[in-house]
């Protein structure tokens, strides 16, 4: 009897799923570092990509990979897409997560710039530039509860306990990623002494 060929093809590779980055930001000019990613369906040939360019990748488990991010990718600020790619058969590219390369923020204005001693808790609007999600307004070096609005505006809650006595305080903004704090801007808590008037 004649014979027919029976082909056994390899099972298709699974589509990788990227769920988180162990590190999500770095400062402009930072040194090369190892970026760990977690997810599922990773195989030995899966590679981490930086804006679509493959990074040198080390396989850990089906749920973890690590890749070297070279210093050349950290020379300018911006948001960069991190994906995981697995080759055919099957395979494909995961959905992207953002990695921020940040530069130091700059403050141009505080609103309000002053308040009387003994004031209640207030909302401080900080205007400037280069703000990114995760930026923190600091009061004399201590972080305040901060809300990101835009790259040019943040709002922060100044507790009443910081406004008890008259004096000046240094306000800075710190972006994530180690880019360094902004130059300080002075906030004044003014004396609430009553001004007396006299008539003859």
What does this structure look like?
Strands 2, 4, 5, 8, 9 and 10 form a six-stranded mixed β-sheet that branches. A five-stranded mixed β-sheet has the order 12-19-18-14-15, with no helix packed on it. A hairpin with a 2-residue loop joins β6 (57-61) and β7 (64-69). It has 200 residues and is an all-beta fold. The termini are far apart. The protein has no helices and 19 strands. It has strands spanning 17-21, 25-27, 33-40, 47-50, 53-54, 57-61, 64-69, 78-86, 92-93, 97-102, 106-111, 114-116, 122-129, 136-139, 142-143, 145-150, 153-158, 167-174, 185-190.
Keywords, please?
19 strands, five-stranded mixed sheet, 0% helix, mainly beta, 200 residues, rod-shaped, six-stranded mixed sheet
The description of the largest β-sheet is:
6 strands, mixed
Overall form: rod-shaped
Order of helices and strands: EEEEEEEEEEEEEEEEEEE
- Given helix and strand content, the structural type is mainly beta
Kindly provide the radius of gyration, computed on alpha-carbon positions and rounded to a whole number of angstroms.
26 Å
């Amino acid at each position: 009897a004649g014979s027919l060929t029976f082909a056994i093809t390899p099972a298709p590779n699974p589509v990788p799923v990227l769920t988180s980055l162990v590190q999500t930001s770095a400062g402009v000019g930072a040194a090369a570092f190892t970026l760990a990613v977690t997810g599922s369906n990773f195989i030995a040939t899966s590679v981490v990509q930086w804006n679509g360019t493959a990074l040198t990748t080390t396989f850990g488990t089906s749920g973890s990979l690590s890749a070297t991010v070279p210093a050349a990718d950290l020379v300018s600020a911006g948001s960069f897409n991190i994906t995981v790619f697995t080759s055919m058969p099957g395979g494909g590219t995961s959905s992207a997560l953002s990695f921020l390369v940040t530069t130091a923020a700059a403050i141009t204005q505080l609103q309000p710039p002053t308040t009387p001693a003994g004031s209640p808790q207030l909302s401080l609007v900080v205007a400037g530039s280069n703000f990114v999600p995760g930026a923190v307004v600091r009061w004399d070096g201590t972080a305040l509860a901060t809300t990101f609005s835009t790259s040019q505006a943040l709002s922060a809650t100044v507790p009443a306990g910081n406004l008890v006595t008259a004096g000046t305080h240094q306000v800075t903004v710190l972006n994530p990623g180690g880019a360094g704090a902004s130059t300080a801007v002075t906030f004044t808590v003014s004396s609430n002494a009553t001004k007396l008037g006299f008539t003859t």
